[in-house]
């Protein structure tokens, strides 16, 4: 019961912070996701240094992620500081390469590869969020912040995860086909299908609430993209943890594990959603 209470309180605080910062303003959204990106990069570096002896420079790697997030957010609003931010990001990337010469790392290629992989896997998705939230306003002829799209993405992730778990627990005894047993033995096909159906229902509800945003079919496509790539994101993180031989990526969120555990689905769903909106 104590663990359940801690897990519930942590989950409530997490949801309130994400929803509140996303809806309040683009500034609050930027700071929230920049902090999340930095914390997740730091956690990733800790895991790799501990379990793979990678010797990743966590402070610089985390700082680079924040700068990338800032650069893309500034680019989305056509800020004059965009070029300087991208230049600073380039300098930090160069530092990650050059600093290895002075740290006497036994496996420098491993550190380089993991640093650049973490920028692509973790920093880039959070940096792409403004491409979902900052849109062209035809009435004013300028860029405007619309929180409904990034918020909907996380709502779809939460609905998919919750109902995949509930449907899996309820029906997997009758339809015991596993989704990806090599990586995540508990995930079932029936759970994934149930989570996807309820996510489509969530898309219909959001469309009825915000009918002026985009047509229903586009909302349903958005939801399906999040379902597929969010599930793959979860499986990718499960594969990482299985290779490292750990259960949770960290303990920063009591009862929920680490930052990677909370945002694993979003790390693939965000880029996929951006691509979806660009192509449609």
Along the chain, the helix and strand elements come as HHHHHHHEEHEEHHH
Q: Assembly state here? A: single chain
Compute the average pLDDT: 88
Radius of gyration of CA atoms, rounded to a whole number: 20 Å
Query: Strand sequence of the main sheet, in spatial order?
Result: 1-2
Global outline: globular
Helical content stands at over 70%
Q: Which structural class fits the helix and strand makeup?
A: mainly alpha
Number of strands: 4
* Strand residues, percent: 5-15%
Structure description:
- The structure is a single chain.
- This protein has 280 residues and is mostly helical.
- It is 74% helix and 6% strand.
- The strands form 2 sheets. Strands 1-2 form a two-stranded antiparallel sheet.
- Strand 3 and strand 4 form a beta hairpin.
- Helix 8 crosses helix 10 (216-244).
- The longest helix is centred in the last third of the chain and has 29 residues, at 216-244.
- The model has no long low-confidence stretch (mean pLDDT 88).
SSE blueprint:
Layout: H1 2-24, H2 26-51, H3 58-76, H4 82-98, H5 100-103, H6 108-127, H7 130-133, E1 134-137, E2 142-145, H8 148-171, E3 178-180, E4 184-188, H9 189-209, H10 216-244, H11 259-279
Antiparallel strand pairs: 1-2, 3-4
């Amino acid at each position: 019961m104590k663990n359940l209470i801690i897990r519930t309180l942590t989950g409530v605080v997490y949801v309130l912070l994400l929803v509140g910062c996303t809806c309040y303003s683009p500034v609050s959204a930027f700071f929230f996701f920049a902090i999340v990106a930095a914390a997740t990069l730091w956690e990733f570096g800790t895991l790799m240094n501990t379990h793979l002896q990678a010797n990743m420079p966590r402070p610089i790697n985390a700082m680079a992620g924040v700068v990338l997030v800032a650069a893309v957010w500034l680019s989305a609003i056509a800020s004059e500081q965009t070029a300087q931010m991208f230049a600073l990001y380039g300098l930090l990337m160069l530092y990650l390469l050059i600093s290895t010469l002075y740290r006497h790392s036994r496996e420098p290629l491993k550190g380089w590869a993991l640093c650049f992989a973490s920028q692509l896997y973790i920093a880039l998705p959070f940096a792409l969020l403004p491409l979902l939230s900052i849109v062209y306003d035809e009435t004013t002829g300028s860029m405007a912040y619309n929180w409904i799209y990034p918020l909907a993405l996380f709502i779809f992730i939460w609905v998919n995860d919750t109902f995949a778990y509930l449907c899996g627990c309820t029906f997997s005894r009758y339809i015991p086909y596993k989704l990806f047993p090599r990586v995540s033995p508990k995930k079932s096909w029936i759970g994934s299908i149930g989570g996807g159906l309820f996510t489509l229902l969530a898309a219909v509800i959001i469309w009825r609430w915000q009918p002026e945003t985009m047509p229903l079919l586009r909302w349903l496509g958005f939801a399906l993209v999040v379902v597929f790539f969010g599930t793959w994101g979860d499986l990718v993180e499960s594969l990482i943890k299985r290779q490292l031989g750990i259960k949770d990526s960290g303990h920063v969120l009591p009862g929920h594990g680490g930052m990677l555990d909370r945002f694993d689905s979003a790390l693939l769903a965000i880029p996929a959603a951006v691509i979806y909106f660009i192509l449609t």
